[in-house]
Amino acid sequence: MTTRRTRPAPRPPEGTPPRAELARQARAVLADAVRIAHWAAGTPGPGTAAPLAAHALERAATALELSPAQVRAGWDRARLAGLVELHGDTARPGWRLRAWDRDDSAVLRGWVALFDAWSLVHAAPEGIEAGAVAEAVEAVPQVLSLLQLSAGPVTVPALLDLLGQRVAELHEERCEVPLGPGGSAPAASAAPAETAAATAGDRRSADINALLLDWALEGLAAVGALTLGKGHATLTPLGNWAVWVKLEQICVAAQSPAGNIEQSAADMLLGCARLTPGPARDEYRAWLAARTVGSAVGELLAVARGEDALLRGLAFEALRVVGAPAEPEVRAVLAEPSLRPYALLWLAEYEGNDPDDAQDVLSREEATWLWVDTAAAVADHGETGLLVRHLDSAVQGTVPALLDEVRAVGHPRTVQVLVALAAAHPDPALAKAVRRAAFQVHTGGA
Question: Residue 188 pLDDT > 50, yes or no?
Answer without folding.
Answer: no
